[in-house]
Amino acid sequence: MPRAGRRRFRFGLGLLLSGLVVHNAIQLQRQRRAQARDYRQIESLFSLFGVLQVRHPLPRLRGWAVSPDFAVLMVSLILERKPGCIVELGSGASTLLAAYALQQVGSGRLISLEHDEAYAAASAEEVRLHGLEGFAGVRHAPLRRLELEGQSWLWYDRALLDDVAEVDLVVVDGPPGNLQRLSRYPALPVLLDRLSPDAVIVMDDYRRRDEREIVSRWLEAFRDFRAREVATEKGAIVLRRPAPTPRRSP
Ligand SMILES: C[S@@+](CC[C@H](N)C(=O)[O-])C[C@H]1O[C@@H](n2cnc3c(N)ncnc32)[C@H](O)[C@@H]1O
Question: Architecture of domain 58-240 in CATH?
Answer without folding.
Answer: 3-Layer(aba) Sandwich (3.40)
